[in-house]
Design goal:
This protein is mainly beta. The chain is about 5% helix and about 50% strand. It is built from one helix and ten strands, in the order E-E-E-H-E-E-E-E-E-E-E. Strand 4 and strand 5 form a beta hairpin.
Length: about 120
């Protein structure tokens, strides 16, 4: 059984920071690269960053230099963090975590980030 729970979103002023947390249970998550994705209003879902099981991180252009992804592995579970700094209004989106590349069609409910003054 797989389970994804994203948390940590909220309303933040431009220039502020947030740390998003993904609690993923299931071997499909603990044994694969994990990623944060986001979906901005009226935009397709996009990759924010991903991290391999060995801890090697890759960032999308939208957050490069402003974000840090990390993971804490456990047996059949993983916690994936996304620290985002210097937030901009265009970072406003629903944020989701999942494997990278995506395997299957299971998604969590996501966590909403709103950047506004």
């Amino acid at each position: 059984q797989v389970h994804l729970v994203e948390s940590g979103g909220g309303l933040v002023q431009p220039g502020g920071s947030l740390r998003l947390t993904c609690a993923a249970s299931g071997s499909v998550f603990s044994t694969n690269s994990m990623a944060w994705y986001r979906q901005r209003p009226d935009k397709p879902r996009e990759l924010v960053a991903f991290i391999t099981t060995a801890g090697v991180a890759t960032y999308g252009d939208s957050v490069k230099g402003r974000g840090t992804i990390s993971r804490d592995n456990a047996k059949n579970a993983v916690t994936v963090l996304l620290q985002m700094n210097s937030l901009k209004p265009e970072d406003t989106a629903d944020y989701y975590c999942n494997t990278y590349p995506i395997k299957g069609d299971y998604w969590g409910e996501g966590t909403q980030v709103t950047v506004a003054s």
